[in-house]
Here is the input.
Amino acid sequence: MATVWSDQEYGFMQRALKVAERGRGRVSPNPLVGCVLVKDGNVIAEGWHDHLGGLHAEQMAIHDAEKNGFSSNGATAYVTLEPCNHFGRTPPCTEALMWAGIKEVIVAHLDPNPTVRGAGIEVLVQAGINVRQGLLEAEAGAQMRAFMHWCEHRRPMVTVKIAVDRNGSVDDRSGAPMRFTSEACLDAVHQLRQDCDAVLVGAETVARDDPSLTVRRVEAQRQPLRIVIDPNGRIPSDAVLL
Here is the structure.
């Protein structure tokens, strides 16, 4: 029988998804994850995976509660991804939740990572913590789609970006190259680059457009790896990206 979720529960998980966005462009290859701690119907803390090697969302939320003078004992944790149960760059989130006295964990999406895959929930249940799963699962999966793709296929997710004019051409080569996309489109491109680990172009793009392939129009904590397919050594020695 499908779980029936209340409007309040939807609201708390939506907040966790929103909080997770604060890590965008900072945590790859890890996924975006958000956590909200709720007690007596009120949010007492929130956390997110902020940067690679940093605290996980659950750990940050517990720390946030302590910092603000709230006890997490007896609270409910709304987490967008199943808590991990293994040692990596940080200790297991399951241990943090048990240590904090969390009474219930509501999980949006199961972790497809082979090192987790239900083991996190199993440990929590064995510890006497009530666990429910599936609230806004599709939304969480979409937010973590690159991570989900990697776990399922063991290859990176590739996004193709192309701009065409009203004639269906990317470059009619009748004159000097010129930009015909809007400022809003440029902003979207740089947002897309911020989410990518690498940007790949062909040698002709470099020779014709001389792009930098960096993130500039949005705040970026890191720059993507720049890759050029150039088997014949056609890239000009004074190209901007060099």
Summary: DSSP finds eight helices and seven strands in the chain. The first strand starts at residue 34 and ends at 39.
